[in-house]
Amino acid sequence: MFDNLIEDYGQFAIMVLVFVVGAAVYGGYLYYQRRQDMDKVNTNLKNVSTPGNPTQPPPLPNQPPNPTPQSKQSPGFVPSETFKGEKKGYVFKKGDKGLGYYKEN
């Protein structure tokens, strides 16, 4: 009686066994990945400054000096060795006064 069952359903049993083993391996892999992610987060949290263990913040990038005109009129030229972003009403170019921001005409 059991001989016929094994002959008839043996391949099905092997397929089920392979599926169960594959699911277990995949579940273990997902667990491992989650543990790795949690370890990374915990490491990053340890590196964050705390009141007892302050770390220095990263240095700020060089900010272009904002021209603060003395009067209501903006200066016609703001010297700058490099382009430091768009400035409203100015064009960055090399002109008579050198490299920098020139007032748009």
List keywords for this structure.
three-stranded antiparallel β-sheet, 44% helix, 1 helix, alpha+beta, 3 strands, 2 domains, 105 residues, elongated
User: First CA to last CA: what distance?
Assistant: 101 Å
Order the strands across the largest sheet as they lie in space: 1-3-2
Strand content: 5-15%
How many E strands?
Answer: 3
Roughly how many Å is the radius of gyration?
Answer: 34 Å
Element pattern in H and E: HEEE
Summed over residues and divided by their number, the pLDDT gives a mean of 82
Largest sheet: 3 strands, antiparallel
List the SSEs and their pairings:
Elements (H helix, E strand, L loop, with lengths): L1 H46 L29 E3 L10 E6 L2 E6 L2
Antiparallel strand pairs: 1-3, 2-3
Summarize the structure in words:
- The protein is of the alpha+beta class.
- It has 2 domains: 1-59; 61-105, no CATH class.
- Helices cover 44% and strands 14% of the residues.
- It contains 1 helix and 3 strands, in the order αβββ.
- It has a 3-stranded antiparallel beta sheet, with no helix packed on it.
- It is elongated, with a radius of gyration of 34 Å.
- The model has no long low-confidence stretch (mean pLDDT 82).
